[in-house]
Amino acid sequence: MLFSQAFGLPVITADDATSVGKVADLTVDAHDATVAAVRLSGAADRAELAWSAVEAVGPDAVIVRSRVTAEQGQDRVPAHHRALGSRVLTEHGVEHGTVRDIAFDPVSGRILTLYTALGEIAGARLMGLGSYAMVVRADPA
Amino acid sequence: MNTLVLASELSGRVVVTLGGEAVAQIKDVVFDGPAGRITGFTLSGRGLLAGPLKQSLRFSDVHAVGPSAVMIVSQALLEDRDAVVGRGEADRGRVLGAPVLTEEGTDIGTVADVVIETGTSGRVVGFEVAANDNLDRRHRKVFVPRGQSLAVSGEALVVPAQAQRFIADDLPSFAAQVEAFLTHTRQR
């Protein structure tokens, strides 16, 4: 699944089937190359759900277990930096376009592929994401 | 082979951590003349109105010097300004503008810039020399490879006589000349 496809999906609780908001963005944990959290828009009380609270990401909705679990595990979420549109630098200081989209595994949350203006980068090469740039490991070739 | 850059071009280049945060930009390059390497960088803050920083960056703490950014592992590596500048200062003199002499005692011009290998070595591979009549009648700026031992002081820079045969007009062709010169000196 692509980040761009997830944006705007309604986030629904499994236990009482109510909406807690829509997906505004996904927070990337660059260290593990995973999605760490779902950021919500239109949420009444909180703006971020830890990935551990997510039951499923489907084509039409994101399901979270319950309002209670949605509030847990938020301490370990890294600071949010917008991934899409971010400048890409290799660890050798070479610029590699900007992030156009990101493919992720909707079950595990693992980042699979980074699509940049200059081609694809395997998600495993992700090293860091800050306010200035996304940093990736240099091409082994 | 790593690509080459002029030391002057590094000024203003952004310093980025592997975590993707821009923490400073390069102000000046500090040389260790006798060792033929960069000691480190002085830094300034980012943005139009930012002044010089009290911190500096030791070259050994640089992850890589790239065409778009100087990469470091973390901001914690930035050190007190004196740690980098203090040591190199005495030897540094003023490299730029110093007369260039060959080992045979011919004055061939003055140092216009220093050529550094990018990547992780920080090695000085040669100099841009503003040539005088003895090297080039048209007084162009040419690139001259350094010798194995690098003799530089505030007064003069001494290059091997043979280095004159391996000069180049631009940086891309200079990379090949440096290789050729190294091969040449190894054979002797």
TrEMBL record, chain A:
Record's Gene3D superfamilies? Answer: PRC-barrel domain
Tell me the ranges covered by the PRC-barrel domain, including all copies. Answer: 5-66
Domain of life from the UniProt record:
Bacteria
Q: What is this protein called?
A: PRC-barrel domain protein
The record lists the organism as Streptomyces cyanogenus
UniProtKB/TrEMBL annotation, chain B:
| Domain PRC-barrel: from-to ranges | 5-49, 94-158
Q: Which SUPFAM superfamilies match?
A: PRC-barrel domain
Reading the lineage from the top rank, the first entry is: Bacteria
By its UniProt entry, which Gene3D superfamilies does this protein fall under?
PRC-barrel domain (2.30.30.240)
One Pfam entry for this protein is: PRC
Name of the protein in its database record: PRC-barrel domain protein
What organism does the UniProt record list as the source?
A: Streptomyces cyanogenus
Lineage, uppermost ranks: Bacteria, Bacillati, Actinomycetota, Actinomycetes, Kitasatosporales
